[in-house]
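hey m, so remember when u said the tokens were messed up on ur end? i reran from scratch. heres the input so u can diff it against urs
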Amino acid sequence: MRRYIQVAWVTAWLAVASPLQAQQAPVADGIRTEAPVVVEGEQPGPGLWLVRKGNHELYILGTLSPLPVKMQWQSAQVRQVLAQAGEVIRMRGVQIDADVGFFRGLLLLPKLLGARNNPDGKTLREVVSPASYARWQVLKARYIGNDGGVETRRPLFAAQELYSAAIKKNGLETTDRTWPVVSEAIKAHNPAVTVVRETITITDPKPLLKEWSKTTLDDLACFDNTLQRIETDLDAMRARANAWATGDIAALRVLPPAYQWEACSSAITEAGIGKRLGFGDAQHKLRAKWLAAAEAALDRTAVSFATLPLNDLLGPNGYLAALQAKGYTVIAPDE
């Protein structure tokens, strides 16, 4: 049984520095407390970017994570576009194609889970600096509590667990709000679906898992950056989430681009196993494939639709800039 496994080594963490400050108050543990000012109820979302070639149009929804937990996305505009769309471009990212049978896959699961831990049974205290571990203890006590298991995690995965716990306690979540709406519309209107993915094929994962379990990652920078984001930028995450939810494009423009977590990505892609599997090249190929799919849709389809993370969509190196450089007209939701 051939299985596609989404590469999820690193959560798509979005944290930014923001001029919009929430109310803050000191607490006993010395960490700022930002009041959980997040929007609730029905919200319109950010609107759609439009890419045009002649009378052909590609509508793109910029997605964001995390978003407010109690927000209900008012998706009427997206549903209207999808009712007319002849094609939907779905970005699936870099995936691993593991040609393993079902029962064999179950046998590999314990080894895969064990690969999240430090080699040789080391704990976080042993692999990170004393200063970093002291910061970790404060944040862990506040957001995770007395979970001893996380102390055995590699710094990369310990940081991921801390981040997830921190955003949850601040009224945010990483659940994808957009694709269920798109999926429902696809079932209702039957447009063509173009899936964009870059696949890394592994015929025998056992040796790789064994190698991974003994590989030391250069993920200390990832660990420290995550601590810093949680210590200083939770208010900025909420500001960006609120701007997305309320459709405040002006605020999204004012906010600096979301931090890309390069150090966390590099911990995987630049490790020996990551280079051997070609993770770095896969990202470049994925970008080229998406742009080619967008151009093809604009050539053959009157109305098409796509979603992309805002972080990838905007900015001088974003997909919109790339399409504009190719001569396409790009119109923002508030223009």
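this time it looks ok to me. The first strand starts at residue 2 and ends at 6. if urs says something different then somethings off w ur setup not the seq
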